[in-house]
Amino acid sequence: MFDLNYKQELNKRRTFAIISHPDAGKTTITEKMLLFGKVIRTSGVVKGTGNIKYAKSDWMDIEKKRGISVTTSVMQFTYKKFLINLLDTPGHKDFSEDTYRILTAVDSCLVVIDAAKGIEERTQKLIDVTRMHNTPIITFINKLDRDSRDPIEILDEIEKKLKLSCIPVTWPISCGRNFKGVYHIYEKIIYLYKNKVSQTQSLSRIEGFYNLSSTVLDQYIGTILANQVRQELDLIMNVYAKFDSQKFLKGLLTPIFFGSALGNFGVDHVLTSLIKWAPPPLSRQTYTRQVNPQEKAFTGFVFKIQANMDLKHRDRIAFIRIVSGQYTKGMKLRHVRIKKNIIISDVFSFLAGDRLLIKKAYPGDIIGFHNHGTIQIGDTFTEGEDIKFIGIPSFAPEMFRRIYLTNPLQQKQLIKGLKQLSEEGTIQVFRPINNNNLILGAIGILQFDVVIERLKMEYHIDAQYEEINVVVARWIRSKTHLHLDSFKNNNSMYLAYDIFNNLIYLAPSQANLNIVMNEYSDIIFDKMRTKNQ
Ligand code: G4P
């Protein structure tokens, strides 16, 4: 039966991801959010140092060996009566295509920037992906308790590099040892930073501080600094525009917050803005129509497949983002691509490594169920309608290796294993048209080790990889087909097929790619390809 509280359930959900360059503070912020959400009670568990490990799982040997997480975690918690779905994006060496795909399953993003470093390479790449979907972005400038760059300089950099207008919501009062807190421009409150704030305690603030010219400020931070703050705020309130919800929802501007995740300072400002400004579950486009979250029939799409979450069972879990309708236990779902109706008995929600069996779920929620080899990234599930969601793209890999067998007799198994792993989205596999090599393509270096490990554990195949002279890849399409044959003939040594038999150009250098792109102007070299078209 359809839930009468459906609309309410919908409106209280916020599904977002945190993105940052490694070490900017993503894990620390996640932990503080989980503290606010009362999912954890003490700091330190996110890193997995205690017995309870919420935000890191260690389900694979490779993770244990390296002490990092290869998985993408989903965390659900409540904050001020809102239900937050936080999708963690793999960050360090475990950066992979998964990280990009996660961004197609969220409705907003929090970008964390290290105040001493500004925009770093990984942040730039991830934001480029969010810009493709015009995802609303909230920005947190972190580590103000350390020496930082001039905040105005950081905002300039954001505007220039990320092409987003900045709207400061809080403003820092000094930094490093002199960090005194932030002024909340919209609340007109000064929040004072204390070095050792208790983990669950809310911030200390100068209540009723409505007037910057009040001498109360001087008492707290000294006259010299107080005057400096007044001048700075005067400037920034004149220079920067006011927050505009419509522009934010279109991904044209980003509200800016400052703080220290480690000191649990400013994180609740971000959470408050997330529930106030970030959108509830949004509609998604299919090839034939737009699906609205208010629709009563269930729809959802698979954005991630994770293997071996439970090593004892060697299982694979498909992660589904619900777009519309309500999931109820035991309901029949249509697996659109294979045209079959199936009843999925065990549906999970996630708390990082932990799975919880659930009976109900709503748009914006991420649910998971067992995949017995029939589910691929990008698959659509419905209550019967034959529609297919657009938008789980394949991204051109950025690293390449040739994979080879230690025992050449296992070639058939190797091809089967690689096909399955690439259907799951673990790795991309290319077959050159001129030779029998198998080339692996990945976004993050660790994926190659994951593949070797999984081939060994799951398929009993001993394989290794080696460097290969490929630095950039582009999928090939032709506008006119006029010159496609001559292009193929002249460049066969650089061409390969992916597992879906799409032609891809594997260039030995960026210069080589530039030359061939100039030479064949009617050929399209795609950085991205949408699966299952
Ligand atoms: P990441 O997930 O984005 O990679 O970053 P993470 O939260 O792991 O933070 C990276 C390092 O920066 C950690 O220190 C963390 O404690 C520190 N850090 C995060 N936020 C702040 C902050 O607001 N102020 C200061 N001063 N430091 C911050 P680490 O020494 O690498 O790790 P750990 O031993 O502290 O866990």
UniProtKB/TrEMBL annotation:
GO terms for molecular function: GTP binding; GTPase activity; guanosine tetraphosphate binding; translation release factor activity, codon nonspecific; translation release factor activity, codon specific. Keywords: Cytoplasm, GTP-binding, Nucleotide-binding, Protein biosynthesis. SUPFAM superfamilies: EF-G C-terminal domain-like, P-loop containing nucleoside triphosphate hydrolases, Translation proteins. PROSITE patterns: G_TR_1, G_TR_2. One of its GO terms (cellular component) is cytosol. Its main location: cytoplasm. It comes from the Bacteria. Gene3D superfamilies: P-loop containing nucleotide triphosphate hydrolases, Peptide chain release factor 3, domain III. The keyword Metal-binding does not apply. Residues 11-282 form the Tr-type G domain. It is found in: Cytoplasm. One of its GO terms (biological process) is regulation of translational termination. GTP binds at residues 20-27, 88-92, 142-145. CDD domains: RF3 (cd04169). Belongs to the TRAFAC class translation factor GTPase superfamily. Classic translation factor GTPase family. PrfC subfamily. Increases the formation of ribosomal termination complexes and stimulates activities of RF-1 and RF-2. It binds guanine nucleotides and has strong preference for UGA stop codons. It may interact directly with the ribosome. The stimulation of RF-1 and RF-2 is significantly reduced by GTP and GDP, but not by GMP. This is Peptide chain release factor 3.
